[in-house]
Each structure stands twice: as structure tokens, then as C-alpha cells.
Amino acid sequence: MGVNKNKKSKAIKAISLSIGLAVMGSMSAASAADDQALLNMCKACHGNDGSSEFASTPNLKWQNTAYMVKQLEQFKSGQRQDKTMTKVAKILNKQQMEALASYFNKGKEE
Ligand code: HEC
């Protein structure tokens, strides 16, 4: 239990740092490096292949791509609310949503 908690708080620290970096990155033109940074941020919570280690984080592995894009759009528009995902979705454009959703739909580590 204790170990798991510690791991989670470490992960959360790393994640808030990457959210900060991603927000900064989104101000410049989108590049492959930005996309990789975005994917790493998603992986930190949702798992490398979309199977999450955290009970409070849903698995994205093999989920329908169109469904995931729709959820991200709803987080961005405020129709769906979550403390973290609302912030995360705001920095994504449609192309990035599609690319990330298609990565997790495959359910394979890259
Ligand atoms: C800090 C942790 C965290 C990060 C980083 C994160 N997510 Fe999430 N994500 C969550 C949590 C928690 C939920 C569940 C929210 C809820 O309960 O509504 C969620 C929900 C989702 C959902 C909806 C899943 C469903 O079954 O409806 C999608 C899609 C998603 N995230 C994609 C992403 C993508 C893509 C990224 C990277 C750009 C990302 N997430 C980054 C924690 C995170």
C-alpha cells in the first residue's frame, strides 16, 4: 500500500511537470517532439499501452478511437468535467486527439 501511494505521488509530480511543459510547447508550432511529450504525459496516468495501474484512471487500451476523441472534445468544451482531463484536453487540437486515441486503440507499447 505505502509503496504504491509513494509511486503514485511521484507519478503525479512528473505529470504536473509535463503538463506545464506541454502547455508551453503548445504555444509554439506543433512538432513531432511535442506529440511525443504529449503521449508520455498520457502514458504516465493511463499506462504505456493504455492499461492503467491506477484504480481511479480508466484503461484506454483498445477503446474505440472515435469514442476517445469524442470524450477529449467534451473535456475540452466543458461538457464532461474532470480536474485533470479538462486541463489536459484544453492543450490538444483535433489532430493530436486523433493521433493519441489511435495509439491507445492499438493497445501496443511504442
Ligand atoms: C494526471 C493523470 C492523467 C493524465 C496525464 C491524462 N489522463 Fe486521461 N484520464 C484521467 C482520469 C482520472 C480520467 C477519468 C476522468 C473521469 O472520471 O471522468 C481520464 C479519462 C480519459 C479519457 C476518457 C476515458 C473513458 O473511458 O471515457 C480519455 C479518452 C483520456 N483520459 C485520454 C487521455 C489522453 C489522450 C491523455 C494525454 C494527452 C490523458 N488522458 C492524460 C487521468 C489522466
From TrEMBL:
It comes from Shewanella woodyi (strain ATCC 51908 / MS32). Pfam families: Cytochrom_C. InterPro entries: Cyt_c-like_dom, Cyt_c-like_dom_sf, Cytochrome_c_Oxidase_Subunit. Keywords: Electron transport, Heme, Iron, Metal-binding, Signal, Transport. Residues 1-32 form the signal peptide. PANTHER family: CBB3-TYPE CYTOCHROME C OXIDASE SUBUNIT FIXP (PTHR33751), CYTOCHROME C4 (PTHR33751:SF9). Residues 30-108 form the Cytochrome c domain. The keyword Transcription regulation does not apply. One of its GO terms (molecular function) is metal ion binding. This is Cytochrome c class I.
